[in-house]
Amino acid sequence: MLYAKVNDEGVIIDVSASQTDEYDLLVAPNEPTVAAILEKKFTSENTSTQQILANSDNDMMRIIEDLIDLLTEKRLIQFTELPLAAQKKILGRKWVRRVHNGEDDLMIETQNTDGDSLI
After folding, report:
1. How far, CA to CA in Å, does 94 sit from each of 17, 32, 41, 65, 82?
2. Is residue 104 very low, low, confident or very high in pLDDT (cuts 50, 70, 90)?
3. Alpha helices in 1-119 (DSSP H)
């Protein structure tokens, strides 16, 4: 997803892969103005397609985490139905996010039948 920064006249002047207060208008990458801005960014020294993809990947990971939480809350899937590797990664990210946010309630380490720790 791309977000645009617009000037006072409503003209798109820049785009970003991350939504902020300045970059709050969702735009399509094939829109002519957006495509021209992206082309300039790709040819500049400071921005690469890899950088844009990395930002997008981070955003998508958070969306996937929220989607998994929603599906489990609605009991459409069980968290334990996910592959063990996916469970470990998701629980690890949740734990790091809680530590980063300063939450005191640390997640309890859970063990499966093989004795393999989830975190």
Report:
1. 23, 39, 33, 9, 16
2. low
3. 32-43, 49-73, 84-100
Q: How far apart are CA 3 and CA 56, in angstroms?
A: 11
List the beta bridge partners of residue 119. none
For residue range 76-93, what is the model confidence (pLDDT) as tens digits?
999 999 999 999 999 998
Alpha-carbon distance 65 to 88, whole Å?
Answer: 12
**Cα–Cα distance between 72 and 105 in angstroms, integer?**
21
CA distance 20 to 78: 33
CB contact set of 109 (below 8 Å; sequence gap of 6+) = 117, 118, 119
